[in-house]
Amino acid sequence: MINVLAFVVVLCAFVATWHFFYESIISPNKITVLRTELLLLEAELSLLDINKLNANDKDVYHLLSHGVENLVNHF
Fold it and tell me: What gap in Å lies between CA 16 and CA 57, rounded to an integer?
C-alpha cells in the first residue's frame, strides 16, 4: 500500500511539474505564433476590395473579418 501511495505522489509531482513547464514556456509560444498568423490573416482580409464582391461573398467576408477580429482580441 505504501508503494502505491508513493507512486501516486511521484506521479502527481511529475504532472504538476509538467503542467508548470507547459503553462509557463510552451503555451505562451504557441499563443504568440497563433496570434501572429491571425494578424497576418486579418491584414490579408483587409486588402480585399469589398466593393468587387457579390452579396454572398460580402456576407462571408464580414463573418470571416469579425471572427478573426474576435479571435485576435481573445488571444
Answer: 48
**Which residue type occupies 14?**
F
The three cell numbers of residue 29 are 509560444
Name the 3-class secondary structure at 40. Answer: helix
Cα distances (Å, whole numbers) of residue 13 to 9, 21, 25, 64, 68? 6, 12, 18, 43, 38
pLDDT-derived band of residue 51, with 50, 70 and 90 as boundaries? confident
* Cβ contact 41:70 at 8 Å: no
pLDDT grade for 4, boundaries at 50, 70 and 90:
very high
CA–chain centroid gap for 64, Å, is: 16
Q: pLDDT tens-digit profile of 37-49?
A: 988 988 888 887 7
